[in-house]
Specification:
The protein has 202 residues and is of the alpha/beta class. It has six helices and eight strands. A six-stranded mixed β-sheet has the order 5-4-3-6-7-8, with helices on both faces. The chain has a two-stranded antiparallel ribbon with strand order 1-2. The chain binds zinc ion (ZN). The site of zinc ion has 7 residues, from helix 6.
């Protein structure tokens, strides 16, 4: 499966001059919502991810995603694994599990995101699952930005990866494009102005 091509075809891998939420600049931007816009593509990607997890003989009772970004990928993965799906959401900045969702003692969870950058939100969701007595057995994402190590890739975890090193991360593809501090950005030096994806009504 050529995940990069699937992202390109869905116009989910944008090329330009972007200001990322970290404040850094990049010539690429991943917009996973676009790739998941087609339910058939979402289903196909989630099935591929589920196969990796099943091949590793990991037993899973439920999938939990941090809202909003991880919802569609997590639901699709739970469907492919035929397990329960819940989500965690931020309330006044604090990740919490609400809406009547119950984590059972000893239940085995996969935390699923659309993209793992440093894994901060995924880790916060994992902590909420563990607070409820659940056991986080693995992390999953469609795309890995290359800061965390994943099963089946040579990429090493970097210092800013927040995911625990003793839990596997499953993802379909590494997208390791360069990021630049604004005062060191070659595109800025050429006089172009970075923009934040989404700020033009898209
Ligand atoms: Zn720039």
């Amino acid at each position: 499966m050529n995940v990069e091509q699937i992202y390109k075809d869905a116009e989910a891998l944008l090329e330009g001059h972007f200001k990322l939420s970290s404040g850094n600049h990049s010539s690429f931007y991943l917009q996973s919502a676009k790739v998941l816009e087609d339910p058939k593509t979402a289903k196909m990607l989630a099935q591929e991810l589920a196969q990796q997890i099943q091949k590793a003989s990991i037993k899973v009772d439920a999938v939990c995603s941090p809202a909003l970004g991880g919802l569609i990928a997590g639901f699709a993965l739970a469907t492919a694994l035929d397990v329960r799906f819940i989500f965690a959401e931020r309330v006044e900045g604090q990740m919490s599990i609400r809406r009547g969702f119950e984590v059972q003692e000893g239940e085995k969870y996969i935390i699923c995101e659309d993209i793992i950058t440093t894994g901060g939100s995924a880790l916060e969701a994992a902590k909420q699952v563990e607070l409820g007595g659940g056991e986080v057995v693995a992390y999953a994402a469609l795309a890995n930005r290359g800061f965390c190590a994943r099963v089946g890739s040579d990429i090493k975890a970097q210092d800013n990866c927040k995911l625990p090193l003793d839990k596997p991360l499953f993802a379909l593809e590494d997208f390791t494009f360069e990021m630049y501090a604004p005062d060191n950005c070659p595109m800025c030096k050429e006089g172009s102005v970075a923009y934040k994806p989404g700020s033009r009504g898209n």
